Amino acid sequence: MALADGTTLLAFPRGKKSEVACGDRVVLNRSGDGQAVIDSIAPRSSLLYRSDEYRKKLIAANVTQIVFVVAVEPGFSAELLTRCLVAAEEQELRVLIVLNKCDLAERVPAALATLAPFVRLGYPLLQLSALECAEALRPHLAGQLSVLVGQSGMGKSTLINALIPEAKVATREISAALDSGKHTTTHATLYRFDAASALIDSPGLQEFGLHHLPVGSIEHAFVDFRPFLGDCRFRDCRHEREPDCAIRAAVERGDIDARRYEVFRSLRAQAGQT
Ligand SMILES: Nc1nc2c(ncn2[C@@H]2O[C@H](COP(=O)(O)OP(=O)(O)OP(=O)(O)O)[C@@H](O)[C@H]2O)c(=O)[nH]1
Ligand SMILES: [Zn+2]
């Protein structure tokens, strides 16, 4: 836990089950030996979970922006990006898509083609090379609590280590404090730039399991569905086999990307289970 004066200390939740997420603002009760107990958690402006059919887990609180890192190689999952965008829309967060490894110039056009449908939807795209110009990302982090998300191999660690030189050291210190190296891969870490800007590195968000989303909020989280919502014949249309479904009609006309519609269907089928 970081205090207002910038110092940090080790803090533990009161109960056994931790309800605290990275990014939370808390009231601490100091115990004198440099440690503390978490008394209460301040109201959150946003909350990201990961979930599967069995359980959901808090990942990050009070985030204002998701930075989704993809690379020109290896290939990335457009479905995962769609899921990330849905999670962001549902929590009303900003999104920045970062295309990394643009130094591999001959691979850039293919990656841009994959990203074109997302850019058409209005999501901002930043092209950079974590090896050559990681600094290009820094201005986009100003004034935001960002969470950095990406599949393995996209260059997330390279980016963080370039922007935050103490990041490598911090990970080691936290593992030592918890007396176990195995925590390094599962817990989220918050790196502060200034009073208004910080970055959360959260390995757990990679898969974007969204089983926890309320069924009714999913269709609204697809920005391309919004112009057509309310135009279906049935008010409670599930956009599956109902007659006169405006969403399916839009897919058939090509106004909604068919792959996005398929992601919608799978999210809807899984929704509300945890
Ligand atoms: N050419 C090029 N290679 C890069 C760039 N950024 C990262 N890489 C390489 O891509 C590989 C993966 O980078 P990492 O930073 O370890 O990727 P990661 O996303 O943190 O992956 P995990 O550690 O598995 O989560 C490494 O071999 C990096 O050197 C870049 O901008 N250009
Ligand atoms: Zn419909």
UniProtKB/TrEMBL annotation:
Residues at which GTP binds: N100, K101, C102, D103, G150, Q151, S152, G153, M154, G155, K156, S157, T158
Alphabetized SUPFAM superfamilies for the sequence: P-loop containing nucleoside triphosphate hydrolases
Residues of the EngC GTPase domain: 61-206
CDD domains according to UniProt: YjeQ_EngC (cd01854)
Keyword rRNA-binding: yes
Recorded GO MF terms: GTP binding; GTPase activity; metal ion binding; rRNA binding
Cofactor(s) this protein requires: Zn(2+)
GO cellular component: cytoplasm
Class of enzymatic activity (EC top level): hydrolase
Occurrences of domain CP-type G (ranges): 51-208
Biological processes annotated in GO: ribosomal small subunit biogenesis
Keywords (A to Z) from UniProt: Cytoplasm, GTP-binding, Hydrolase, Metal-binding, Nucleotide-binding, Ribosome biogenesis, RNA-binding, rRNA-binding, Zinc
Record-listed E.C. numbers: 3.6.1.-
Signal peptide range: none
Major localization class: cytoplasm
Ranges in coiled-coil conformation: none
Role, per record: One of several proteins that assist in the late maturation steps of the functional core of the 30S ribosomal subunit. Helps release RbfA from mature subunits. May play a role in the assembly of ribosomal proteins into the subunit. Circularly permuted GTPase that catalyzes slow GTP hydrolysis, GTPase activity is stimulated by the 30S ribosomal subunit.
Family listed: Belongs to the TRAFAC class YlqF/YawG GTPase family. RsgA subfamily.
Subunit: Monomer. Associates with 30S ribosomal subunit, binds 16S rRNA.
Protein name: Small ribosomal subunit biogenesis GTPase RsgA
Protein's organism: Rhodocyclus tenuis (Rhodospirillum tenue)
